[in-house]
Amino acid sequence: MTYMRSLLVLSSAIVLCACGSGPRLGGGKEGAASALFAATSPAKSSGALADLFGQRFNQSVEVTVDCELGGRARLSVSQRIDGGATGNVSQQIGITLEGCANSRTDTGEKVVLDGKLQITQSIAWSSGAGSVSQKIVGSVRFSGGIDDQLDADITQSVEWAKLGASSGEVAVTLNGTLKTMSATYEYRQESVKIRAGVLVADAKK
After folding, report:
1. Which of 12, 26, 111, 138 has the most CB atoms within 10 Å of its CB?
2. Tens of pLDDT along 42-91?
3. 88-105 and 198-199: which strand pairing?
4. Any idea where the domains of the chain sit in the sequence?
């Protein structure tokens, strides 16, 4: 009986330890939008897609980039140009995040991202400025300063100059669904302002 009690106590401890100890993602709709922005930012902040875009011809590449605070992101990109130097650019982007840390919580703790996203990206370019529309599908796990998961089936629109920003305020327009471990958020062509590089930790967790 003593042996069985010890096994039960040990099993209970293992179950408890399996649960994430960090706070969930906070901030409501804005917090979820910030998490999405962080997950997609390696595509632009690395400069890899900017260089590809600047070459202005159809091609496919695979590249691995370092994330700002550690880890890496692997990108698989296929690009199609429509309309020459001032036309539209279409990119199919597969992002695999491997311990990619590019954000901190609002209390300064590093947040680590793992997961996969598939992005269909359209860049409308004219007179030295561009806008980006991204259809994003996939799932990302957050650890470190935040213990949560983000499932995305959504379209994000943002200015090209702001895409991949690591700080400052960024305005995005969202249409679709973001789901965390504790909530589901529906956006209908909704404009949201976020703080790039900062994720809100839920103090209640």
Report:
1. 111
2. 876 445 555 555 554 566 778 888 898 999 999 988 877 665 555 677 88
3. parallel
4. 23-199
